[in-house]
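Hi, here's the filled form for the chain we discussed.

Project: internal
Contact: R.S.
Residues: 297
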Amino acid sequence: MVLGMRRWRLNSGYNGATDQRRTQAGTIPMLKHYMERNLGTFSSSNEWTPAQITTSLWLDAADASTITESGGAVSQWDDKSGNGRNVVQASSANQPTYDATGLNGKPTLSFDGTNDSLKNATYEPSGAVSVFVVLNRTENKGVVVNIKRSDGIFEISGKFDSSYKTVTLTAKGNVNPSFGFDVAGDGVDENNILGIQHDGGANATGNFTGHWNGIEQTIVNSGALGFVSETGFSIGGRPVQNISAAYYSGSISEIIFINNTTSTTDRQLIEGYLAHKWGLTANLPADHPYKNAAPTV
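And the returned structure, exactly as it came back:
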């Protein structure tokens, strides 16, 4: 490579008193400065991650350092949000399974649909919420996320059809409206990105928005449902109820939880991040801003 016919003088002749490019670290920063200025070698952007926004809870199976497992049984999944909201399962019989190459070569956690779950007993957010999940259901059943809140209960189910909607909300335990959407082709045994937002207002369909692989869904109310509340935050089931129908059957690869509604820009950043990370870009619509390239900072 020809460097503009310039000669390098990294030692003799370099005067730090007159050349403001010099740093105390010496010749390596000088070389980096030269490359940036003349070749653009170091100007590439970094990929965007949820660390760029305020997350309340962030579970990432691809980060092996966050998984505590023995013989494939997961006893703890650590929160990457910085809030220490780890989810745990002390009973070995009820621990999900760590699959090291589960989704396009990246690790996932598999839940058996019988008794597997993980829980943080103290995390109880309030108000508006946004939840994004990378999941693959092996059966059309169970609870992906159950959240006890100071203003009621918020739950995302794993059954996305006319008989049991994606999201349920109960206010102070008095009413149990079920909101959500149908998934074309059922969505079982497929890897998908689910996004749900609720603005924290009164129980009405207008308070919810739902996105399936970056495509907004028509939210409908399928009537009241009766279910038992957990305390805190649980994934993979509703252990206090302890019935088969309450347990999720399938895998969960990543959960991003935000104690607020997200802007369209942030929602699309999250979708793009998840799609490129987990090899799901084919799921995004053609007009998605991150269909062809991962978001950067």
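Let me know if anything looks off before we file it.
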